[in-house]
Design brief:
The chain is α/β, with parallel strands linked by helices and about 450 residues long. The chain contains 16 helices and 17 strands. The strands form four sheets. It has an eight-stranded parallel barrel with strand order 3-6-7-8-9-10-11-12, surrounded by seven helices. The structure holds iron/sulfur cluster.
């Protein structure tokens, strides 16, 4: 269990030297207990103190990695129940299943479909990060062959998913260098699966039908020498599963209960594609670190990835694009110039609406710390001086012959001051970006 601030204080040198950046050893101890400081920040702690304090400094939910190189994924290490408390760290990994009952062309086609589930949204790449090989054939050799085929043809991290320890041993032996996540270990198979994981240096999925059962199972796996575990709770309904996952997160974070301090995995293997999509989104909200899903339909996968992207962004840091001059189409010295802010959603909305007009133009993106037009203007992150400075900085005056700037309709009020500050004539654009295609074609 975690040490209290006073227990930690007793282990520190108590010299109040301030080398850790804290005024006293007691202040440092309190910060360490609340996980607001790192033990390494105190250069004078003894080895004995370090080993006693290691547990207090360790994250309440362990970081687990699988896959290698560019395909490596990491899950866990979360520190809060709710995103707005701080932020979530490691986005839910979506793993699409590949059954070993497929073979030949069918198997290759399925692997290609999974590989192709990559998208771009608001300038960021999002995609499926893992392939889960399912042992539906019930045969160890076939399972091992499917795992080898996935390793050869997929660029994603791999999960081996079977209830047979023999099949798991056969497949893990073939693809161990890809460091797959191995599953599943149950109370009955813990010793055998633990040995396979230890021999191959891979993390393990521990599966039980109760939260208490999972806590016992992780202790068994620990005895077998397995430290990297992912928890799989088998509950009869979605509601019970979400409730259990919430319990696990709460006990791990609030009680620092180490036997449940691991990332979690859930499975959505049945149902229509849209139904699977909705279930996966529920699991990614509460609190699955990995979700196995059967569908390869892009219309079902993209909303999942979009929702994960939103949940796992830092609520204190809006998603931003670089503040600079962007070209839409092939603008020349007579092309119109618009300006907007560097909030990603604003920029990409404006860009796509301008693109739809088929009028080549420049978009001057002003740095407003990632806030939208009205928010930036209200907070004085957008004013005539900032826009005039951006015009100069981007060398816009040498790109176009004219001196007309189209500004968002919501900040029409800054027109006069902006004209005085920049020397450019201001033309007020529409308030809503969706009107831009018509505006660009008819007014510009
Ligand atoms: Fe105390 Fe260590 Fe901080 Fe010095 S660096 S004040 S000894 S906790």
């Amino acid at each position: 269990m975690a040490l209290t601030g006073l227990q930690i204080f007793k282990l520190l040198p108590k010299t109040n030297c301030k080398d850790c950046g804290m005024p006293t050893c007691l202040a440092f101890a309190m910060a360490l207990a609340q996980k607001k400081a790192k033990l390494d920040d105190c250069p004078h702690a003894s080895d004995e103190a370090k080993s006693s304090l290691a547990e207090a400094a360790a994250p309440p939910i362990k970081l687990v990695k699988f896959g290698t190189g560019d395909a490596e994924v990491q899950v866990g290490q979360e520190t809060v129940m709710f995103r707005h408390d701080e932020k979530f760290y490691n986005p839910t990994v979506i793993a699409v299943t590949v059954s070993d009952s497929l073979s030949g062309d069918e198997l290759n086609q399925r692997i290609e479909q999974v590989n192709g589930l990559q998208f771009e949204r608001v300038g960021q790449k999002i995609g499926v990060k893992a392939v889960a090989v399912l042992n539906e054939s019930g045969n160890a050799e076939i399972f091992a062959a499917a795992a080898e085929a996935v390793k050869a043809k997929s660029t994603l991290a791999m999960i081996l998913y079977t209830e047979s320890a023999d099949a798991l041993a056969a497949a893990a032996g073939k693809v161990a260098d890809a460091k797959p996540l191995l599953g599943v270990a149950t109370t009955e198979s813990a010793a055998a699966v633990g040995k396979i994981a230890k021999d191959n240096g891979c993390p393990v999925i521990a599966q039980a039908d109760s939260v208490e059962g999972l806590a016992d199972l992780t202790e068994k796996l620990k005895e077998a020498g397995v430290e990297d575990v992912v928890l799989s709770l088998k509950a009869p309904t979605l509601k019970e599963q979400l409730y259990g996952l919430s319990q696990i997160r709460a006990v791990a974070l609030k009680k620092n209960f180490r036997p449940l301090g691991f990332p979690t995995i859930s499975c959505v293997l049945e149902g229509a594609a849209a139904e699977q999509s909705a279930q996966v989104m529920a699991f990614s909200c509460k609190f699955s670190s990995i979700v196995l899903v059967e569908t390869v339909e892009k219309f079902a996968i993209l909303p999942i990835l979009t929702s994960i992207m939103n949940i796992f962004t830092d609520p204190q840091k809006p998603v931003q694009v670089e503040a600079k001059l962007y070209e839409v189409g092939e603008p020349d010295e007579n092309s119109p110039v618009l300006f907007t802010t560097n909030f990603s959603l604003t920029y990409y909305t404006v860009e796509s609406d301008v693109e739809a007009s088929r009028v080549p133009c420049y978009i001057l993106v002003v740095d407003t710390e990632g806030t939208s037009v009205l928010t930036a203007y209200s907070g004085d992150k957008l004013n005539e001086k900032i826009v005039a400075a951006a015009i100069k900085k981007t060398d816009l005056e040498n790109k176009v012959k004219h001196r007309t700037l189209i500004i968002p309709g919501y900040v029409a009020v800054m027109s006069g001051k902006l004209e005085e500050e920049s020397g450019w004539e201001v033309k007020v654009g529409p308030r809503e970006s969706s009107v831009l295609p018509k505006f660009m074609q008819e007014v510009v």
